[in-house]
Automatic annotation (TrEMBL):
Organism: Reinekea forsetii
EC numbers: 1.4.3.5
Stated name of the protein: Pyridoxine/pyridoxamine 5'-phosphate oxidase
Lineage per the UniProt record: Bacteria, Pseudomonadati, Pseudomonadota, Gammaproteobacteria, Oceanospirillales
Annotated Pfam families: PNP_phzG_C (PF10590), PNPOx_N (PF01243)
InterPro entries reported in the protein's UniProt record: Pyridox_Oxase, Pyridox_Oxase_CS, Pyridox_Oxase_N, Pyridoxamine_oxidase_dimer_C, Split_barrel_FMN-bd
Length: 212
């Protein structure tokens, strides 16, 4: 296998300033709606979340976008996880959406802020029951000796709550990434891609074309 021989041309579409909304969140929701309707054989709400720890070591993982509005991008996690510990020390994060069948990417730079207890609880109670049980079961990012131990812990939690309502764990909740910059990328031929960067400027946004 020669990896340096693997390439393709991006020919689906271009992106001009006139096609972009003045507000990046409106533009993002437009692209997200198109991705949701495109039958991509992948999860269009999947996004890479990059954080940096106290030693300056970056790390990235896939999380799922659970809400988006003018305030930012929402996801949920264990509040004692690797990513949560990183964000406690450095709230600056980066999100990356890769809609490769559409030859599109979106990159979000911003700050992660914890959601209110009410917001997190409302979402937790809407989750499937097994997802609620899993939140109680997993000490996310901690080591464990075997898969069997994890499954045993799940069964113990399942037995503990029986058929009753499952409350939200104190160590679980949500974050909103409040954007300061958002880049929209559309692939083009000859690697002359279209890139536009929105930068927060007070109550408005500055929009610039970037070289590929």
């Amino acid at each position: 296998m020669k990896l340096d021989d693997i390439r393709r041309e991006y020919t689906q579409a271009g992106l001009d300033r006139e096609q972009l909304d003045d507000h990046p969140m409106v533009q993002f929701e437009r692209w997200l709606e198109q991705a949701l309707g495109a039958d991509l054989n992948a999860d269009p709400t999947a996004m890479s979340l990059a954080t940096v720890d106290a030693q300056g070591q970056p790390s990235a993982r896939i999380v799922l976008l659970k809400n988006v509005d003018q305030r930012g991008f929402v996801f949920y996690t264990n509040l004692e996880s690797h990513k949560a510990n990183d964000m406690a020390g450095n709230a600056k994060v980066c999100l990356h959406f890769a809609w490769t069948p559409l030859e599109r990417q979106v990159v979000v730079y911003g700050r992660a802020e914890k959601l209110s207890l009410a917001e997190s609880t409302k979402y937790f109670l809407s989750r499937p029951r097994n997802s609620q049980l899993a939140a109680w079961t997993s000490q996310q990012s901690r080591t464990i000796g075997s898969r069997k131990l994890l499954e045993q812990a799940f069964e113990q939690i399942k037995h503990k709550f029986g058929e009753g309502e499952i409350p939200m764990p104190a160590f679980w909740g949500g974050y909103r990434v409040v954007p300061t910059q958002i880049e929209f990328w559309q692939g083009r031929g000859a690697r002359l891609h279209d890139r536009f960067m929105y930068r927060a400027d007070g109550e408005s946004w500055q929009l610039d074309r970037l070289q590929p």
